[in-house]
Amino acid sequence: MKVMIRRSEGQLSAYVPKKDLEEPIVALEKESLWGGWARLANGWVLELPDMAEDTRLPITVEAKKRATAEEEE
After folding, report:
1. What is the DSSP letter of 43?
2. Most buried residue, 5, 8, 58, 67, by CB count within 10 Å?
3. Whether 12 contacts 59, CB under 8 Å
4. Taking the alpha carbons of 61, 65, 68, 73 in that order, is the dihedral positive or negative?
5. Nearest 5°: CA angle at 17, between 16 and 20?
6. Torsion over CA of 25, 28, 31 and 34, rounded to 10 degrees?
7. In which domain of life is the source organism classified (predicted)?
């Protein structure tokens, strides 16, 4: 799914246009953001693509919805 990642007031967020959903990113697998998972405040876990650490935001990427926090536990 297409996801726009942006940083606003020091907080990363993800916007999913198809769902008209914008949620803060509350946890990351990798500090660099790219190439791991990102957990959204609503519990969704998205797999983000590998990209350079200095990739400029905002950016739209293709991400996969892995699971929700409840499904992982």
Report:
1. S
2. 5
3. no
4. negative
5. 85
6. -90
7. Bacteria
What is the rounded (10 degree) CA torsion for 5, 48, 29, 11? Answer: 0
φ, ψ for residue 46 (rounded to 5)?
-110, 135
Domains in the chain with CATH codes: 2-72 (2.40.50.240)
Residue with tokens 């876990």: 45
Q: Alpha-carbon distance 25 to 15, whole Å?
A: 10
- Of 26, 36, 33, 23, residue with least CA distance to 57: 33
Output the six-digit token pair for 27: 């946890």
Tokens of 33: 């953001």
> Which pLDDT tens digit goes with each residue over 1-20?
999 999 988 999 999 999 99
Q: 50: helix, coil or strand?
A: coil
